[in-house]
Amino acid sequence: MLLDEDPAELMHQTIANFNLAPDKAAVARINEALGDIHTTRDLRIREAESALKKLSRTHNLLSSHHTETLASHSSATHASHIVELDTQKFRIAKAASDLEIESDRLEAELDGLKSRLQELDLQGVEGDDTARQKREGEDETVLKLKVYRTLGIDIELEEGGKVGKAVVRNARRGDVHVVHVDPKFSRFYYANYFWGTI
Questions:
Q1: Strand order in the sheet with 153-157
Q2: DSSP 4
Q3: 3-state secondary structure of 131
Q4: Which among 17, 51, 107, 176 counts the fewest CB atoms within 10 Å?
């Protein structure tokens, strides 16, 4: 019977019938694979931690930069800067408009001067017919008085057309001289005197 045999012998025969070598080899392979997996996992964890630390430093740097930018960029300062730029823009636009108006005015004035120059060129040195007739109508005495007056000398004529008195003005010095013309002195004397006075 089965129970009549020695249990230890029976167990020894049963164990001898089992082929444990393939199972042991499979368990060894599994243990080796688990070790490789643990090593690879630890390596990946270390790489992920290093990348996380690097990203964390980058995030902190960008965050501080962003905070500094926000602190330096005040909305009130920005608004006042925009207002200042708008004011400058309007000033420049007004100056450009004023310059354009002034340019138009100067162009019109230049056109007027060109037409006046053309008229004068056509009239020549003698002037137009009206001016020539006016000059020809004036007598010699009136022309002499005009020449003296342009020099600052007012002549008063006596009866008979002779020079009686001359008022000599020097606007530069602010002097006024009254000269009574005496026929006993020569014209050369009075001419030198007048030139020295004016």
A1: 153-157, 163-170, 175-180
A2: T
A3: helix
A4: 17
CA distance 92 to 99: 10
How far apart CA 103 and CA 98 sit, in angstroms, is 8
167, 178 Cβ separation under 8 angstroms: yes
Element (H, E) at 175: strand 175-180
The tens digit of pLDDT for each residue in 116-175 reads 998 888 877 666 666 666 655 556 777 777 877 887 888 887 777 677 788 888 777 777
pTM of the predicted model, to two decimals? 0.31
Closest-CA residue to 147 (of 166, 174, 175): 166
Residue 99 CA, distance from chain mean position: 16
**Hunting for tokens 């006075």 — which residue is that?**
197
Rounded distance, CA 160 to CA 158, Å? 6
- Tokens at residue 111, please? 């056109």
Task: Evaluate whether 168 touches 152 at the Cβ level (below 8 Å).
Answer: yes
Judged by phi (left if over 0) then psi (alpha if -120 to 50, else beta), residue 174 lies in left
Determine the length of the chain. Answer: 198
Contact indicator for 158, 182 with CB cutoff of 8 Å: no
163, 181 contact by CB (below 8 A) = yes
Query: Which letter does DSSP use for residue 127 in this model?
Result: -
